[in-house]
Structures are given as C-alpha cells and as structure tokens.
Amino acid sequence: MSYTTHKPVPPTRLRTYFSMDYPVGLFNGRFAREMRDNGRLIGIVCRHCGFSMLPPQAVCTVCHGENIKDPNWVEMGPEATVAGFMTFNMPFIDTNDLSVQKGHYTVGQLMVDSPGRTSGFLWHFIGEADASQLRNGMRVRAIYRPRDERKGLMTDILHWVPTGE
After folding, report:
1. Confidence at residue 8, expressed as pLDDT on a 0 to 100 scale
2. Of 100, 75, 103, 98, which Cα lies nearest the Cα of 159?
3. In angstroms, how far is CA 154 from the centroid of its own chain?
4. C-alpha span between 108 and 87 (Å, rounded)
5. What average pLDDT does the segment 7-12 reach?
6. Cis peptide before 78 (omega within 30 of 0)
7. Each residue of 143-152: pLDDT tens digit?
8. How does the average pLDDT of the chain come out, rounded?
9. CB 88, CB 132: distance < 8 Å
C-alpha cells in the first residue's frame, strides 16, 4: 500500500480559550499598585547611567546595570510630550478582557516627564482632541478612571488630553 496515492486530510481547527494568571513581580507589581491606588505613574531611574525606565525594570535598557537592590523609584508624569502619533479607524481587541473596542482613536508615543536624565516612554490613547490638531511636541496630561474602577492595568489611564501649552 502506498501512502502517496491518498489525498492529505485537512488539519482540525480547535478554538480553545486559554487563560493564565501569573505574578507581575516586584517592579511591575509596585507600578500597577501605584496606578490603581494612587492614580500615578512610577518608574525607576537607573543608578548607573540615569536612564528613566517606565514601566520600571530591574535591569537598565541602556547600560544593562542592575537596579534590583535599592531601586531609585520616582514619580513620573502626570504630564508628557507627544513624540509621535497615529490614528486608527477600526475595532481592536482589549487583551485584558478580550472585548472588542470600536471606534476612532488616536494612539501616541508619549515621553512621560521624569526627574531623571531622560523621559519614560509609553504608547497610549490621546483623547479629547481632533487628530488634525495633534502635533509632535504637544503637551498632554493623563486622565485616570475613578479610583473605585481601577484594576492596576494600563487601562486605568483612560487617555491623555492636551494641556493647552
């Protein structure tokens, strides 16, 4: 019997829900709690080179210095400078709860104010502004969910709005 004379069987497709809980760790845990409990962003300024890390990291992205012992925690924001942006007109899936979010939204690369040598960087929504009015260098401020609705996720920040500066 020759197996080459038979037509291949198509693969079976299964849709399986997969969920995994995992601890966010010391650094991101504190970052998440500060957003949830105090409505503020915190990061770390590297003790070796002064680079600001937002979200915080144990090892510096620039110099690879370890900041595990006695990290230099700093409050960052609540304001930032728009470094770039793009507008989308399509639905997207919120990865936290797999809900489909509809509509028109603008996402910005934000340089979040930091007392360190550099700004912290985040991608986030820019709201309450027509995309034609946005520009690089524009100042924006974080708008948080009401305290009792926060969960310690990046969605605790609803969006960023222009400050008028």
Report:
1. 81
2. 103
3. 6
4. 9
5. 82
6. yes
7. 999 999 999 9
8. 86
9. no
Task: Provide Rg for the chain, Cα atoms.
Answer: 21
The reported pLDDT for the residue numbered 33 is 94
**In this structure, what are the phi and psi dihedrals at residue 78, rounded to the nearest 5 degrees?**
-80, 5
Distance CA 92, CA 99 (A): 8
Integer CA distances (angstroms), 109 to 10, 38, 131, 146, in order: 43, 23, 14, 24
Which residues 6+ apart lie within 8 Å of 113 measured at CB? 76, 77, 78, 79, 80, 81, 119
Task: Give φ, ψ of 147 to 5 degrees.
Answer: -50, -40
Query: What letter represents residue 137's amino acid?
Result: G
Question: Count of residues for the chain?
Answer: 165
